[in-house]
Amino acid sequence: MNLIETLSLAGLTTVTSATLPSSYRHLRVVGVLRSTRSGQASSSMDIRLNGDAGSNYGYQIMFGNGSSVGGSYQSPLDRFARLTIPAATAPTGACEVLDLIIPAYRSGFNKQGLLLNGERTSTASTGMAINAWTNEWRNTAAISSLTLLDVNGAAWATGSFVDIYGIA
Amino acid sequence: MLLRFNGDAGANYLWQRLLRSDTINGADYQSSPTGAFVVFCPAATAPGDAAATFETIIPLHKSTDLHKYGVTRTGVHYGATTSNNAEVQCAAWSNAAAISSITAVEANGSLFAHGSYLKIEVI
Predict the structure, then answer these.
(1) pLDDT value for B22
(2) Where are any strands of DSSP class E within chain A?
(3) Which of A42, A55, B51, B63 has the maximal Cβ count within 10 Å?
(4) What is the pLDDT of residue B84?
């Protein structure tokens, strides 16, 4: 697994990777993030592929939050994933952690992702969540870029990074 | 089994777990355990040779900006015909220090069995 690019997010509200190389078979995207969104415990971050903002995505999510278990299927959507990002009033040091695997990102199939992420937005017993997803982009094109954008237009905090790895 | 970082045995950890055990969904949260990234392991009365397998990823272990958060995937079989769990977990060490060491702790004070190992990779 080789590092393709580190996205340094602090101070930004949207970022797009450089063109992804075609020398790997799979992608793994790993990171930690926090938002500066004022007066709020959280913000939201979308992930899009190849700059596609159309309604060409869907996902199934299951989550654990305190003792609660839930899940939902959503489609069509304009995003590969929407993550909850701890913001200004979240506990000090709390952040979002994400681990996204996209097998065969250059294949001729629609693109599927396996995402595991979690975050803590308050000190309540329901303030921490774990989420397991399967994500779909209904496009057979090779994935050439990832875009991350804060839905509320707030900047990410210092210490927010996302690394993109390629797997041979 | 719990993981601790930098030898910190204080109540400075958190974890939120989601699991499916046979046909039952479950979730639980621990606000101040003395370790995190908990992995429930088969023990003496579990089926022969049953084991837990897991992968934990902790991004940016050297960063000093934010607390250390990670995610874990676990599979475990510790009952004869039931208690076959698929689990995912978000866990944290409430400390912004760089992680310099990892300690694996058998939370009940028992020994890990022959064949048990933990592999640490730096990416």
Answers:
(1) 85
(2) 2-8, 14-16, 26-33, 42-49, 57-65, 68-77, 81-86, 96-102, 111-120, 128-137, 146-150, 161-167
(3) A42
(4) 84
How far apart are the C-alpha atoms of B77 and B89, rounded to whole Å?
Answer: 17
State whether A93 and B66 contact (CB < 8 Å). yes
Q: Is the peptide bond before A91 cis (omega within 30 degrees of 0)?
A: no
Q: Token pair of A109, please?
A: 């199939």
Q: Sort residue B74 into left (φ over 0), alpha (ψ -120 to 50) or beta.
A: beta
pLDDT tens track for B69-119: 999 999 998 877 677 889 999 999 999 999 999 999 999 999 999 999 999
* ipTM of the complex in this document: 0.95
Q: b/e per residue, B34-44, with b = 16+ CB within 10 A?
A: ebbbbbbbbee
Interface of B with A in 36-75 (CB under 8 A): 57, 59-60, 63, 65-67, 69-71, 73
For chain B, what is the total number of helices (H) and then of strands (E)?
0, 7
**Can you tell me the distance from the alpha carbon of A93 to that of B94, in angstroms, rounded to the nearest whole number?**
7
Element (H, E) at A102: strand A96-102
Confidence tier at A149 by pLDDT (50, 70, 90): very high
In chain B, residues with a C-beta closer than 8 Å to the C-beta of A95 are 66-67, 69
Length of chain A: 168
Please, which pLDDT band fits residue B48 given cuts at 50, 70 and 90?
Answer: confident
Q: What is the pTM of this model?
A: 0.96
- Strand-by-strand arrangement of the A81-86 sheet: A14-16, A146-150, A42-49, A81-86
